[in-house]
Amino acid sequence: MAEYNDRARYGWLAAYFRVALISGVCVAMLLGSALAQALTWQEGLRGDAPERYTVVRGDTLWGISGRFLQHPWQWPEVWQVNPQIRNPHLIYPGDVVYLYDCNGRPCLGLERGQGTVRLSPEVRRIPTREAIEPIPLEVIRHFLRDHRIVDDPEALDELAYVVAGDDRRIISGAGDRIYARGEIERGPRYGIYRIGERYSDATTGELLGLELEGVGQARVQRAEEDIVVLEVLSATQEVRNNDIILPLESRELVREFVPRAPDGAVDGRILAAPGGVRFIGRLQVVALDRGRRDGLEAGHVLQVEQQGERVNDPRSGEILRLPGNEAGLIMVFRPYEKMSYGLVMRASRTLEVGDRVHNPRHGRGVAQR
């Protein structure tokens, strides 16, 4: 490995391949020219990036890339030029990524961990290894079990709702019978939701969406005319009259999230942190005031900028606003038409509602600055 400590020998190409090879841990994307990317990545390598790294349980692709890159969300953009590793999204605990001499140029080698094999007189067992996740997906799964957005709040009047509990109960729980009114097909499980936050654009006042908070799940037992009898299967809160009954959303998440900058310019704000959280930190979910109509897709990464302080000019006395400060990164995981949910992947300072979000300053896209 000593050959690679001499960066002068390889110049910018060595720096480029070092970043590209070590951080190549996700599905390929369509890329621009290798030269253009090399110039971009030359400044993206961390000064303390290791020569080798052994993957451990609990790692994520984002986290591993952060050991080598200044901007870890860019790992998919450098993977395409590294065909040496097959199935880059299948990286396992115990695997080692390293740099080696490949006919006078740096190449990537991947040492696959062997795992632990235990033998007995009767059975030979090879423990199943689970590939590491691109980001902490469990945080997202947990959130999506309890939250969803209705783009058109007026449509709520057409949805089924709870009219009563069994034995005239005002509140119900798991195992109880409830009665709902509205169109409900028999068979699939349904979610029970309560109307939550109304999200509006701070500038125009436009209603962006209505948040529904999940309180439980139910199954249809029978229907008589427009009254449907359901059994509450689970409940995180008490089920009340007027709660909404909706088919469960598809909660399947794509494991291979591809972090990337939006294709077009995006400039918005953090609307809220669901749950009424005041101070926002890493791995917390936030609601954003931009959605699919603004070009946002799952995987898009936005930079958070906090407003600069107001100061007095010592000569003129006028009040000046200092430039904003970069405060973190948010990755969109569930875009709706007018707004989105995102996960805070990095927070260099405490984030707040109202903080600006926009295209990353470092990365591809039309809105680079």
TrEMBL record:
- Organism domain of life: Bacteria
The protein's matches in PROSITE patterns, at most eight in alphabetical order, are given as: LYSM
Domain LysM, chain residue ranges per copy: 51-99
Q: Which Pfam families match?
A: LysM (PF01476)
User: What InterPro entries does the record tag this protein with?
Assistant: Bact_Kbp, LysM, LysM_dom_sf
Q: Which PANTHER family match?
A: PHAGE-LIKE ELEMENT PBSX PROTEIN XKDP (PTHR34700:SF4), POTASSIUM BINDING PROTEIN KBP (PTHR34700)
Q: Could you tell me what this protein is called?
A: LysM domain protein
Q: Which organism is it from?
A: Halomonas chromatireducens
Q: Which taxonomic lineage is given here?
A: Bacteria, Pseudomonadati, Pseudomonadota, Gammaproteobacteria, Oceanospirillales
